């Protein structure tokens, strides 16, 4: 039969093989878990990129609207200034006319 040394070596090899198989199956399981996590992260990343794209689009839309409002506001401001100048001119004309009338009335007396 086999010598004690051979039996002991065979048993040691068997234990080593079993340990390696156990380690390998654990590694494969961890690898599968990592792969699932990676898939989940990739999916989340895609969703976040889409969300970011939408937010950037909304920011561009709002900036455009803001620019439009500022542009309209500038036009309105110019129109208001022009109207103020016209009003001041009319008031000046009115005041001058009123003074002339007063002077004329005083002169008549």
Question: Please, could you describe this protein's structure?
Answer:
The protein is mainly α and 109 residues long. Helix content is 96%, strand content 0%. The chain has one helix and no strands. It has one helix at 4-108. The longest helix has 105 residues, at 4-108. It is rod-shaped, with a radius of gyration of 46 Å.
Would you tell me the overall average pLDDT? 94
What amount of the residues lies in strands? Answer: under 5%
Given as residue ranges, the uncertain stretches (5+ residues, pLDDT < 50) are none
Helix content estimate: over 70%
Structural class: mainly alpha
Report Rg.
46 Å
Count of β-strands: 0
Q: How would you characterize the largest beta sheet?
A: none
**What's the number of helices?**
1
Distance between the ends:
157 Å
What order do the helices and strands follow? H
Q: Topology of this structure?
A:
Blueprint: H1 4-108
Summarize the structure.
The chain has 109 residues and is mainly alpha-helical. It has one helix at residues 4-108. It is rod-shaped.
What attributes characterize this protein structure?
109 residues, single chain, rod-shaped, mainly alpha
